[in-house]
Amino acid sequence: MAEYRVGIIGGGIGGLGAAYELAKLGHHVELYERAPFLGGLASTFEVGGGRLERFYHHLFLSDTTMISLLKELGLGDRLIWRDSKVGMFTGGRIYDFSTPWDLLRFSPVSLVDRMRMGLVALYLQRVKRWQKFEHSTASAFMRKWAGKRNYEAVWEPLLKGKFTTYHDQVSMAWLWSKFATRVASRGKTLREKLGYIRGSWQVLIDALERRIRELGGQVLTSTAVTRILTEGGRVSGLAIQRADGMQEQRAFDIVIATIPSFALPKLVELPQEYVAKLQGVEYEGAIAAIWVLKHSLSHIYWLNITDPDIPFLLVLEQTNLVPPEEYGGKHLIYTANYVTRDDYRWPLSPEEIVRGYIPNLKKINPAFDASWIEATYVHREPAAQPIIKANHRERMPPTRTPVPGLWLAAMSQVYPEDRGTNYSLRLAVEVARQAVEMHQA
């Protein structure tokens, strides 16, 4: 196999995975990340003497690409698995929602509706071909089959929380994938198993960076790609700018971009038809407030919020999955939102966001008091969630761009699964292999 020079744009898990795969195959790789750190949405910061992801992350048993990579890197013993503790906060009360038996006890809807919801869930778990749902929206499907009361009590609040103004346009194929993922992660007890990397995702990020360098590759942070260079209609290299303002051009045979799809036309001239696909996939942002508390907020790890007067979609208590001892005995929670570009929180300071959320934590646990708070952090990402609408496969931009040698591996191309580290990794590795194979052909 010939050796190629490959430039990779983006130092998230996908970009790192692609770089590692190509370096293993004997190619020279150079990875460029605009931020001063690697990992993207899985990047971490220090809290309580440990490391924590800026945006919450966990693994499912079905995340076989990620699990295999961890084992390959000698990190298999770092994987910890726990029974999931899922709940629903509705009508001012927490309901456990981890097992089929919990569904039968979900009193906000009638017993008949609970049974109907259970039958729909069972049906979706047994369907193997997601393509049958591609032309339907999740809202229309759930209204019809789960029924009006179940839709209004459960599915409409969850879809609105996740997709805001787009909630009635989201593909049923996307929602089917959520059922498929969770069923595949259930153990013999019918409880969902969730995994975490002991020491945080930073353990994986550091291992990938180290292996890429050992294999002769380069990993550069605080380095922005300002232009994808072409010559004779095909990729020829990258123009980059370092943190100190120094600019240079680097020659490459292949370029793989692991950036949001709408960002690619800013870097290179592309045919309008392909640009329309790139810009046709809309994205939402994410805002995560992280709270360091003296006490636990609840017994639930993943608490979905359906009450419309609470200004966040989710309360995720990290220390109900990972022991508080990992963080100096502190209890850590995320309050998280997906938000549109015009959301009122974007211009607010972290202190203003936290101050507005505090009264709502008391709704979840009446014993909560502001004196529990030891520290807070707010992280924001403007392009965290692509909106997967009905017929997304027709809209999705191909990974092989019209410019020979230029490839794209973006979250908008993870389909029908939801965006996540496992699927971003799988896509980027597949694209990396295809890129060198097609270059040889």
The helix count comes to 12
Which CATH architecture of the largest domain is right?
A: 3-Layer(bba) Sandwich
Query: Strand order within the widest sheet?
Result: 8-7-16-17-18-15-19
> What is the terminal separation in angstroms?
11 Å
Number of strands: 20
Largest sheet: 7 strands, mixed
How would you sum up this structure, described in words?
The protein has 441 residues and is an alpha/beta fold. It has 3 domains: 5-57 and 201-281 and 391-440, FAD/NAD(P)-binding domain, CATH 3.50.50; 100-153 and 168-186, no CATH class; 283-386, Protoporphyrinogen oxidase, mitochondrial, domain 2 (Polyamine Oxidase, Chain A, domain 2). It is built from 12 helices and 20 strands. The longest helix has 20 residues, at 421-440. The mean pLDDT is 94.
Please outline the helices and strands.
Elements lengths: L4 E5 L3 H12 L3 E5 L11 E4 L2 E4 L5 E2 L3 H9 L6 E5 L2 E5 L2 E4 L3 H5 L6 H16 L11 H8 L2 H16 L8 H13 L8 E5 L4 H13 L3 E3 L2 E9 L2 E9 L4 E5 L2 E4 L14 H9 L2 E11 L8 E4 L8 E4 L13 E9 L10 H15 L8 E14 L5 H4 L10 E3 L12 H20 L1
Parallel strand pairs: 1-2, 1-14, 2-10, 7-16, 14-20
Antiparallel strand pairs: 3-4, 5-9, 6-9, 7-8, 11-12, 12-13, 15-18, 15-19, 16-17, 17-18
Helix pairs in contact: 1-8, 1-12, 2-12, 5-6
